[in-house]
Amino acid sequence: MTSAGTVTGPTEVDLLVIGAGPTGLYAAYYAGFREMRVAVVDSLPELGGQVTAMYPEKQILDVAGFPSVKGRDLVAGLVQQAATAHPSYFLDRTATSMEHVEGGERVCVRLDDGQEVVCGAVLVTAGIGKFSPRPLPAGDGWLGRGLEFFVPSFAPYGGKDVVIVGGGDSAFDWAQHLEPVARSVTLVHRREAFRAHERTVREVTESRVEIVTRAQVTALRGETTLEEVELDVDGETRVLPAQAVVAALGFVADLGALQQWGLETDKRHVLVDTHMRTNLPRVYAAGDITEYPGKVRLISVGFGEAATAVNNAAVDIDPAAHVFPGHSSNA
């Protein structure tokens, strides 16, 4: 899928990208297109960010040029594209501090292993930051014994009775993809309204997935592995056979050290202007981590923001450069 190891390289670069998800990978490519030396740091051990960690099998439908592309294939293409920039990757590392050096002309970022990367500009593409799944209250002690929070592969669910808990995009996406694989799929949600995309809700509703609303999981039972799930459905008890439960209850996001750098934020998002500049000199942001009027959090939007940020950072790094890069077909 992606490179699992950390590739180290020069610690003096033009641009440091913090975050190796789709937006960060595209930014690395674009920095290479602008003939910048680029490094990418990510706290995860693999490239691809949330797509690799949570949705490698998901079909992504809103990326320009791809009527449908599997998450892992999109990441593989982005990694191949970024490789043209010969980036240095610092994976399984976390950026812990940042300071301006050399009279403010350079930025020094320290990683959690003591490594320092000095650059002309920083581009933060950290998505939602570090994330951890919201727990299923009735699931204590069941993680790895039938309970999971992510579905990196559909094959282990073949022929099983699967209960998915949640009402958002992840819950419905996984229900849709597991329906042809599992013996049965039941989606359980505490409310009658859903947060998921209307089209996906309609498609799941029209499939053989059973949707149980006004319900909560009250117990998971089994000897060594999961055998059944107990629900409270509008005050009445219902027991379902289940060998797998997927808790898709959302995530708790944490910007971590980024919040200590003096970046102006709003509800765990970094505020940027139309150039994708933050309030700190030589520090830009792009992708889901950003906030501005009219912001839409899509991978396709992140790609455009990455290009905008890199092109504007190019002038910070080299005042003789131009914001407009020319067309790639002329390269």
Task: Describe this entry's structure for a reader.
- The protein is of the alpha/beta class and 331 residues long.
- It has two domains: 12-131 and 251-330, FAD/NAD(P)-binding domain, CATH 3.50.50.60; 135-247, 3-Layer(bba) Sandwich (FAD/NAD(P)-binding domain), CATH 3.50.50.60.
- It is built from six helices and 22 strands.
- The chain has helices at 22-33, 49-54, 71-82, 169-178, 198-205, 299-317, and strands at 12-18, 38-42, 59-60, 69-70, 88-91, 95-101, 106-111, 116-124, 130-133, 147-148, 161-165, 184-188, 210-212, 215-221, 228-233, 236-241, 244-247, 251-254, 265-266, 269-271, 283-285, 290-291.
- The strands form six sheets. Strands 1, 2, 5, 6, 7, 8 and 21 form a seven-stranded mixed beta sheet that branches. A five-stranded parallel beta sheet has the order 10-17-11-12-13, covered by helices on one side. Strands 14-15-16 form a three-stranded antiparallel beta sheet, with no helix packed on it.
- Strand 14 and strand 15 (228-233) form a beta hairpin.
- The longest helix is centred in the C-terminal third of the chain and has 19 residues, at 299-317.
- The protein is elongated.
Which key terms come to mind for this protein?
seven-stranded mixed β-sheet; elongated; alpha/beta; FAD/NAD(P)-binding domain; 331 residues; five-stranded parallel β-sheet; 6 helices; 2 domains; single chain; 20% helix; disordered N terminus
Structural class: alpha/beta
- Helix content range: 10-25%
The major sheet is characterized as:
7 strands, mixed
Distance between termini?
29 Å
Number of strands: 22
Q: What is the CATH homology-level superfamily of the largest domain?
A: FAD/NAD(P)-binding domain
CATH architecture of the largest domain: 3-Layer(bba) Sandwich
CATH fold naming of the largest domain: FAD/NAD(P)-binding domain
Number of domains: 2
Which stretches are poorly predicted, pLDDT < 50 over at least 5 residues? 1-5
